[in-house]
Amino acid sequence: MKHLNILIFLLLGTITLLNLQNIKISTNFMDALFSKESTEIYQISQKLGSSSDILISTKGFDKKALDKLYKIKEDLLKLKAIDTVKISLLPSKEIREYIAKNYYLLSDFKNKKFSDDEIKNKLQKIYNEISTSVFYTPVDNSDPMGLFSFGKISNERYLKLKEHGYILKATTKIKLSQASKSRELYNQIHSITDKYPNTISFAPFYFLVENSAYIQADATDIITLSSILLLVLYFIILKNIKLFFHTVLALSSSAMLAVLISTSIYDEINIISLVFGISITTISIDYMFHYYFHDEFEAKKFIKQKKVFFGFLTTFGVFLIFSFIDIKLFAELSLFSVVSLASAYIIFSLAFPYLNIKSPHIKQKNTKLQSFNPLIVTTISILMLIYSTLFLEFDSDLKSLDYQNTKLKDISKKFNTSLGADKYQRLLLSASTKEKLLQKYEQVEQKHPSIKGIGNFIYSQNKCQDKLNTLKTYDFIQLNKKINSISTDIGFSNIFKNTYLNIQNTKCEMVLPDDIDFKIIKYQNKFYTLALIEKDDKISSDENLLILNMGEILSKNLDELKNTLLIFTIFSLIFVLGSLFGISKTKILYPLSYILFPVSVVLFTLSFYSQLNIMHMFALVILISIGIDYGIYMLDTSTHSQTTKAIRYAMLSTFAGFGVLIFSSVNSLHSIGYVISVGIMSIFVLLILKGKNENI
């Protein structure tokens, strides 16, 4: 038993090293907070939208700038991850052939009968233009009467980035979820563009690569700083090298076990969980402080200190409840906490009594304690909560919790504005079959003629047959005869011989080429497509159309997360209050003050300078679990000196572990650090009010 702590550490350390390659760390913070519905919408929009697009622009609108783009194109095509590269706006050969084959179906048909005079006037006008023109004027012998019109054709040959230069558009086979491949492609693209000054590029996966790199660096700094600070703090506090050594081993073992179990349940563990994991160990160390300062390590048996057990049980229970929450990040953090706290408690209670650690033997002072009035503290807390409720707003922007990459956001906005993406609202249409999806598109088109999408290039069978029937009822053969007769009299050669005759061969066999901009995809037994409608074209709520605005979807998602978090918080509070009542009975207001007061102070201070976000809310749950521990410990005044000393050191440890998170530039980590730090300081005020302040 004497070497049990070391054996546990070596065993877990060996298992961790052997499984190191299987431990996958995610730096994608946003995905961990998406609800199932939002995740599905996000994945569908990635497949349909421009998530695979890479945009590159060189400075200038001259031939020299264009030549640079073509050189970049050559380099990009050498990369395995690049699918297509396009500079010209001209449609591909496949698209041109598709349009030519289905021209009469895709075009708007002017169902008009022409008199002989109208035909003669039209042909005469064409003949006069040819005769008087200095330059060669081609004749549209397929539709000289202008019966068919196919959309608007842009005169622009190249995409342009406003006030910068021409744009190259490439696509990649890599998905946004493939972090390592995205990072590799990011580096390859920049190694190409860096050779050309004043060249800028953007792709949606740039956010993943750059934000992940920043978050990873920030998290590494936080973990390093926190670890060093805690090690120095423990060494100074304990003044016992043996106890210090075994404490570090115990906390390391609890963290390793938490990582191993978390990664066995989840495919990958978020890096925020690791940062949080280092901080959560500072909660479990208060078990050791209480045992140590109460001389429990002299017992040579499993330690059964009632207040420590109840303190552990309530904290463990709160995190256990939250481990079942349907929010991946919070479930991850809670599971990590459950395993870490439980393993640390067992190691401190089971292994440490056999280490022959010399106890400090703190003498209990016979002084009358000046306890605070819990009713006054509760009243003040309620007043602060009322004020906070009135003036504290909720931050509904989920992206505000992520790293704010302003430089990349500006580049993205610049490209979107130049390409006109900000002029449209995107609709996500879905149906059980392709045919029904096209029919749904056509229904929307009736109300919103400005719609752009797959329905401009392919029709449902019903619409296609209707158009085909309309064409068949028109006497194109008779029109052909009149045109040929009149054109010969005017002076034309036999150029209108086959005019309109090939319409009779038209069939509803529309098969889209792969490189068309708009697509239909299948996702979990449903078919989806994306459509664009001008922002000025209002969509009423009764149309039941999903506008693909990720900002609004994330805001709705955040409201759902908030409601879910509130429900689990209520369950946790019921558990905590039940535990408190079972332990303290009529004295419940006293330990309750250690929850109510710090929570109210945090919310009260937040109301003056910030908004309440979802990470603040989860951190408040952590604060409740910390406060309940201290409330239970301070119920017993018979060993006040030992308990106060243990709590002060535990608080100092927790403050150091969570306090460093305040320095994080990632708002999610900063939010947790702020709540715990302010909460710990509030609890420290209660400790001062509890009795005479003893020197640490």
From TrEMBL:
Q: Which residues cross the membrane?
A: 219-237, 244-265, 271-289, 309-327, 333-355, 375-392, 564-581, 588-608, 614-635, 647-666, 672-689
User: Under what name is this protein listed?
Assistant: Membrane transport protein MMPL domain-containing protein
- Superkingdom in the source lineage: Bacteria
Q: Which UniProt keywords apply?
A: Membrane, Transmembrane, Transmembrane helix
Taxonomy of the source species:
Bacteria, Pseudomonadati, Campylobacterota, Epsilonproteobacteria, Campylobacterales
